[in-house]
Structures are given as C-alpha cells and as structure tokens.
C-alpha cells in the first residue's frame, strides 16, 4: 500500500481525502488499526478475488445504503 496516509479523527464523517496527496485514511499514523480506502483510489489498491452478495429483509427499503462513509467513532 502506498505510504501517504491521512489521519482521520474518531467521529469524523469524512468520506474522501482532504487532498490529492493522501491515498487512504487511518485512525493512528504510528500504529493504525482502522483503514479507510477512498473510493477515488479503490480500484488502484484492492484486488477483488471474491465478491459476496446477499439480501436481508431487514435492510430492504432503508435509505442511505451504499454511500461511502467513515466507520470511525
């Protein structure tokens, strides 16, 4: 993975890099545990070997699904 991480603080709603110089986001620059791969660079760094698809009756009709968002928080 390229070495241009951007620090994303807990609770952030950031879903894209703040600058073109960043390749991905992390929760901690020294010892990252959570990573955010921006959709703008997703195809450059992820090789999909498997695709898993499923439908849940509990999720049908919910709005907001499928949008990029950060899980920090």
Quick recap:
This protein has one helix and three strands. It is mainly beta and 73 residues long. A three-stranded mixed sheet has the order 1-2-3, with no helix packed on it.
> Structural class of the helix and strand makeup?
mainly beta
Total strand count, please?
A: 3
Helical content band: under 10%
Number of helices: 1
Order of the strands making up the biggest sheet? 1-2-3
> On the 0-100 scale, what is the average pLDDT?
76
Distance between the termini: 24 Å
**Rg, nearest Å:** 14 Å
Q: What count of domains describes the coordinates?
A: 1
Note the overall shape. Answer: extended
Q: Tell me about the biggest sheet?
A: 3 strands, mixed
Task: Assess the beta-strand content as a share of residues.
Answer: 5-15%
* Contiguous runs where pLDDT drops below 50 for at least 5 residues: none
Order of helices and strands: EEEH
InterPro entries: Poly(ADP-ribose)pol_cat_dom, RCD1/SRO1-5
Protein name: Poly(ADP-ribose) polymerase catalytic domain
GO molecular function, one term: NAD+ poly-ADP-ribosyltransferase activity
Organism: Arabidopsis suecica
Please describe what this structure looks like.
The chain is mainly beta. The chain has one domain (1-61, 68-73). Helix content is 5%, strand content 12%. It has one helix spanning 42-45; strands at 5-7, 24-26, 35-37. The protein has a three-stranded mixed β-sheet with strand order 1-2-3, with no helix packed on it. A hairpin with an 8-residue loop joins strand 2 and strand 3 (35-37). It is extended, with a radius of gyration of 14 Å. The two termini are 24 Å apart. The mean pLDDT is 76.
């Amino acid at each position: 993975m390229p070495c241009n991480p951007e620090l994303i603080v807990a609770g952030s709603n950031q879903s894209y890099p703040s600058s073109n110089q960043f390749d991905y986001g992390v929760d901690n620059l020294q010892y990252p545990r959570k990573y955010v791969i921006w959709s703008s660079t997703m195809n450059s760094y992820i090789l999909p070997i498997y695709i898993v698809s499923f439908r849940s009756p509990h999720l049908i009709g919910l709005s907001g699904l499928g949008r990029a968002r950060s899980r920090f928080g």
